[in-house]
Write a sequence for this structure.
């Protein structure tokens, strides 16, 4: 009797392994649960299989990869998952890195901390995985990269995050950090156009047309405002080293401080006009309704 129970557990396990090969994960998971309940010989491996399936079915959840890493670290021998040969110690390392990467990628508060953490993860991909392909990616159905390639992606994000953190206080530093990101993207075979445009914008300097202060970082520390620059005024701007308007003179450069003070004041003024217009509309509506009422009463008489 006892023997047949064990056999049944093992049968369920073998069936589960076949189901994994066919990528029928939900069915396979049930088989492995029952293998554990029945105490099959492969109960420990069944637990690992369940954690692997959970990671496959929920491959954007870092907690799944942490759990899988822990169960893999308890395994001594390699095994097959579907058609993939799994070296438990190695895949455990990949799971921890992936969990860190997904967690840090979601951070939104402190961009400097996020950037530094990403650079740290990139170094680990380089040193711990290197030229080998990342096995767990293929298993859970995400893009398979080598450790080096993954390191380059994560490094590029890291520098971009650090640049976003730096740009408000030091746009030149932000442009330098983006140069590092661009180097990574070029190595990955990307054209890096977005990064190049950002470097150009962050490196550009201008003089505010309104207050005359110099500033660096187009789109961040100075902006363009639609304007009409007369030919007489153009001459003076063309002669100065730091421009206060783009070459077509259809707009002027305005520093962030002037820009926000003008737009906030304009908002306040338009709010006053808006409130007044609404008040007048309501008064008119009341008058019209009173007139409609009196016409109706007259009609009834
Ligand atoms: Zn200004």
């Amino acid at each position: 009797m006892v023997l047949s129970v064990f056999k049944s557990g093992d049968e369920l396990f073998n069936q589960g392994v076949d189901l994994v090969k066919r990528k029928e994960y939900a069915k396979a998971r049930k088989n492995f649960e029952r293998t554990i309940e029945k105490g099959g010989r492969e109960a420990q491996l069944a637990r690992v299989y369940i954690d692997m399936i959970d990671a496959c079915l929920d491959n954007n959840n870092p907690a799944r990869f942490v759990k899988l890493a822990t169960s893999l670290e308890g395994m001594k021998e390699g095994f097959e998952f579907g058609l993939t040969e799994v070296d438990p110690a190695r895949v455990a390392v990949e799971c921890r890195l992936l969990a860190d990467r997904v967690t840090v990628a979601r951070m939104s508060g402190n961009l400097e901390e996020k950037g530094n953490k990403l650079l740290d993860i990139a170094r680990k991909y380089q040193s711990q995985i290197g030229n080998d392909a990342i096995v767990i990616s293929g298993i859970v159905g995400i893009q398979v990269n080598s450790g080096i390639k993954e390191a380059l992606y994560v490094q590029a994000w890291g520098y971009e995050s650090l640049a976003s953190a730096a740009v408000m206080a030091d746009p030149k530093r932000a442009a330098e950090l983006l140069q590092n990101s661009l180097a990574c993207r070029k190595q990955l075979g990307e054209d890096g156009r977005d990064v190049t445009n950002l470097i150009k914008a962050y490196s550009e300097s201008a003089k505010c047309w309104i207050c005359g202060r110099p500033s660096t970082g187009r789109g961040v520390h100075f902006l363009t405002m639609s304007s009409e620059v007369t030919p007489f005024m153009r001459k003076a701007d063309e002669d100065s080293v730091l421009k206060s308007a783009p070459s077509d003179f259809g707009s002027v450069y305005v520093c962030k401080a002037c820009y926000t003070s003008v737009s906030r004041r304009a908002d306040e003024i338009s709010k006053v006009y808006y409130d007044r217009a609404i008040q007048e509309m309501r008064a008119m509506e009341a008058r019209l309704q009173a007139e409609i009422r009196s016409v109706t009463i007259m009609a009834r008489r």
